[in-house]
Design goal:
The protein has about 200 residues and is α/β, with parallel strands linked by helices. The chain is built from seven helices and seven strands. It has a single domain, classed as Rossmann fold (3-Layer(aba) Sandwich), CATH 3.40.50. It has a seven-stranded mixed sheet with strand order 3-2-1-4-5-7-6. It is globular, with a radius of gyration of 17 Å. The chain starts with a helix and ends with a strand. The structure holds S-adenosylmethionine. S-adenosylmethionine binds next to helix 4 and strand 2. The site of S-adenosylmethionine has 19 residues, from helix 4 and strand 2.
Length: about 200
């Protein structure tokens, strides 16, 4: 199966995010579990021996397992983590279900590291809104201007990424933006710069 993530120059751009994630995760003494691991890209950037990934999408798990044959992956839900309490030293969640919504059992020791959007993340692809939708969007932007409330420490990573048309389309279909009426990126035939703006946060278990 073709991997849109691996094909996109988006990946090369996001090495900056992966570097920040690796620095924040550090070298925990024990297993690291990536919840919503997708194709395993962020896990692959952690030079650690004990790597586990979980995703609800079977095709993503298959790709992750091919990318990282020495790590273990499982198809499952973040809301029912199939791990023993206290067995995980760090839980990672990158643009995926995160701590506030996931039962805390997995990380009874260790900490959570999350990547969540900042206010300007992919703003060039978002639709122009009006009325009530615009009000809700501005509230969301205000919320995203601060790190997640549960974060004990957070760093903001911001940069511009120049994408060609094909990478832009791949990115569009990877993000929830694709569900928003009027979002742009699906049918483009020209490249564009997009803003990457994320919080890399950590919080104790
Ligand atoms: C935007 S992708 C991010 C993938 C990966 N973390 C990355 O950044 O490359 C979100 C991922 O979360 C997964 N996901 C969504 N809901 C989930 C759930 N309830 N339990 C486990 N995984 C879930 C999706 O299948 C998808 O692979």
């Amino acid at each position: 199966m073709r991997s849109p993530l691996a094909a996109a120059s988006w990946v090369r751009g996001t090495t900056r995010v992966a570097t920040a994630v690796a620095e924040v995760v550090g070298t925990p003494t024990g297993p690291v579990l990536d919840v919503g691991c997708g194709e395993g890209y962020y896990l692959s950037q952690l030079p650690l021996p004990d790597r586990f990934g979980l995703d609800v999408a079977k095709s993503a798990v298959q790709m992750a397992a091919r990318l990282l044959p020495d790590s273990q992956f499982v198809v499952g839900s973040a809301y029912r983590l199939p791990v023993l309490d206290g067995s995980v030293a760090a839980v990672l969640s990158v643009f995926a279900p995160h701590r506030r919504r996931v039962p805390a059992s997995a990380a009874a020791r260790g900490r959570w590291v999350t990547v969540t959007p900042g206010p300007h993340h992919l703003q060039q692809m978002r639709p122009v809104l009006s009325g009530d939708s615009q009000r809700k969007a501005s509230e969301r932007l205000q919320r995203r201007a601060e790190p997640p409330v549960e974060a004990a420490a957070a760093r903001r990573v911001q940069f511009e990424l120049q994408l060609d048309a094909s990478a832009l389309r791949d990115l569009f279909y990877m993000t929830p933006i694709r569900w928003q009426a009027g979002a742009t990126g699906a049918d483009t035939d020209t490249g564009r710069a997009v803003s990457v703006d994320v919080w890399v946060s950590s919080s104790p278990a």
